[in-house]
Amino acid sequence: MALMITDECINCDVCEPECPNQAIYLGPEIYEIDPAKCTECVGHFDEPQCVQVCPVACIPIHPGHVEDHESLWRKYQRLAAQAQQGSAG
Fold first, then answer.
1. Is 10 domain-assigned?
2. Position 27 in a domain
3. Mapped to the 3 state alphabet, what secondary structure does 6-60 carry?
4. What is the pTM of this model?
């Protein structure tokens, strides 16, 4: 399951640097999460770090991107391999 940021976001800037996959970015009005990069911190942490630091609790599961733990793990492995290839080149 990828996460999403709702319009309750106050643009406090605390979530973006916490994301180990660099899935969080500043959109036109609020921060957004790229579901292709979000693993809910599987492979990095036990809990999603953005959810842990968000002061307004505006980061729920994205209903359009429901994934089980195994899918999130495979996504983490793919992203990690891409990052390693990028740093080798």
1. no
2. yes
3. CCCCCCCCCCHHHCCCCCEEECCCCEEECCCCCCCCCCCCCCCHHHHHCCCCCCC
4. 0.91
